[in-house]
Amino acid sequence: MKNLINLLLFSVTLIGLSEVHHWWLLNDGILVHSIFQGSRIEIDPKLLFAERRSKIAINPSDASCWVTNSFQGQVTKYNVDNKKPLILKGFAAPTSLALSNDKIWAIDSALNRIVTASLDGKIIKTIPIQSAKSMVVLDGDQWVLTWRGLQNLTDDGLSPAILTKVTHVTAANQHIWCLDQNGLIYTFRSQVDLNRAKFSIPDAVDIVSTDDGGAWLLRHEMVIRLTDQLIPVGEITGVKNPKRLIRQPTDHSVWLIDTESDRAVRLPRLNDPSDVKLIAAIGWNQVRNTKQVKTIIATDLKWNLFSRNNKREKPSIAQSTEDSKVKIRTETNPPTVKTRLLLSKPIASKMKDLKPIAVPISPNETFDHVPVFPNGGLVSVELYNSLSQKRIQNTDQMLGRRFIWNFEGETYTLLVGLSLDVYNTYSNRDRLKWIEMVVEGSGIGQPIAEKLNQVAQENNWSRERLANFVISFVQSLPYTADDVATGYDEFKMYAFETLVAGGGDCEDTVILAASLLRSLSYDLILLNPKGHLALGVSGQFSGAHYEYNDLQYFYSETTGKGWEIGNIPEAYRSIPVKLYQVPLLTP
Question: Which of 113, 408, 544, 578 has the greatest number of C-beta atoms within 10 Å?
Fold first, then answer.
């Protein structure tokens, strides 16, 4: 089911035509254009190559698709009529897009800026913005999600955050909806009309706005429909393994990406009856080969409407006693990044009450095999203690990748050349166990780790400081998940693949970080709370740690920026964890 895991669906109806155009971004970075006609979806045989973590935006007026490419440093516009693509260059690492009626907005995360351009590709303005994650544009207002929270972008720059701890922001029909990390739900039309739901849903994983001012809210086993007054009016039950929700900006349809059943399901409109048939597009696992998907009725899903006469209980939600009308509070003195990290830092303690389950190395496993490829497939590596404009160009034999990140106020640039043959080999290899993939990743981890270690030696850093330097690099990869609560999918990547993809989920980034730190002879364990993966690093750190074989292993988060070793997210402070021993590197 790997192709559907990060499936993005945008279904665009061209006015006056009987066909419906869709854009699909599959998990492996393939961008697919399809045409829906009657009961059949025709796949355009010309498959386009994006990136696994690319972001796309659709212009409903012409059904064109804008796509980020972080490693090429560009944003590309594809058309449904096969015209030559329009390419916007000059970016360092574009990672998010937003469209207005006449402009495209791109967040260039590596250079901490937002670039605006006309729809014909002319750069209009570059705006310095620190740590922007995503943005929405609605009725001339621009809202940017940064580490401080949701901020309004004006001609004078960013206004103070009106909401903090926001994880999702979505907009449609003059309404903006937000979901925060505590499951609180907000909606507003303007800064003076901010409303909060009288309940919270801590297990909510996604939210998307609708054309009537309401929203769909995704939970692990259901999807809930909310009105513009924050009232639950119905739910879709029977969902097995939902990934996310997608809103189509032209016909305003909303789709549920259901990985368990290999499908995308169109959700009902607010006034649809309870017996409405839910249309599903299936067959995405084989689309690269078959060039075809089918439409069926999702008979296992049920649209349940709530009504005053319905005695059935509404979905279980955590009730809030506070008033739903929220007074807007802005930060008059926004904290610095360092202060924010200190606020997130847990009490220094052993996680002794969680009774971790240890998974030691099997006595029959020696891990003494030589990695398959010399240097793990790394052709070249360069590290600069500055923002370097240099790039390694792609060739028929090599993929060039450029990574930029900050550590303790300094900017670093890492350039790597990766063998295309090795990448193709990894793409077709079976997935191994986590520990085996860490050992395999040490092949490419060692030459990169040596470059990182040179910086530490030149600056006389401690081993603990070097470890945090390595972790900061992994956290900064442009397509690494921002949310520390992000789980892992069933397609884990080798360290080599994560470098090519420019990031991944918790599983992928832990494998990469462990491959680097293992190459520097750190003693490690993998930490596996349910649905998540993190790293345990032994050393003279402080903060949250686990004990195993009389050693202390400090919690290390590889998703989300700014988490130092010893800092543990709130979600994982009080749940059981499995410990997987990582074999030490044999000299």
Answer: 544
Continuous segment of H or E residues that includes residue 511 = helix 506-519
CA distance linking residue 320 with residue 299, whole number of Å: 35
Other beta carbons less than 10 A from residue 392's beta carbon: 19
DSSP 32: E
Share of residues in the chain with pLDDT > 90 (%):
37
User: What type of residue sits at position 561?
Assistant: K
**CB-based contact 505:53 (threshold 8 Å):** no
Beta-strand runs (E) in 350-491: 357-359, 378-384, 398-407, 410-419
> pLDDT tier at 315 (50, 70, 90 boundaries)?
low
Query: What residue has token string 């040596």?
Result: 450
Instruction: Return the closest-CA partner of residue 345 out of 333, 337, 334, 353.
Output: 337
Rounded-to-integer distance, Cα 6 and Cα 497, Å = 16
**Which residues sit opposite 468 in a β-bridge?**
none
Q: What is the pLDDT of residues 371-384, one digit of tens each?
A: 677 788 999 999 99
How confident is the model over 92-122, as pLDDT tens digits?
778 899 998 899 999 987 677 899 999 999 9
DSSP string, 460-504: T--HHHHHHHHHHHHHH-TTS-S-TT----S----HHHHHHHT--
| Alpha carbons 239 and 313: distance in angstroms, whole number | 18
Cα–Cα distance measured from residue 64 to residue 78, given in angstroms and rounded to the nearest whole number:
6
Contacts 24+ apart (CB under 8 A), 327-336: 328/162, 328/191, 328/192, 328/194, 329/162, 330/159, 330/160, 330/161, 330/162, 331/148, 331/160, 331/161, 332/160, 334/148, 334/160, 334/161
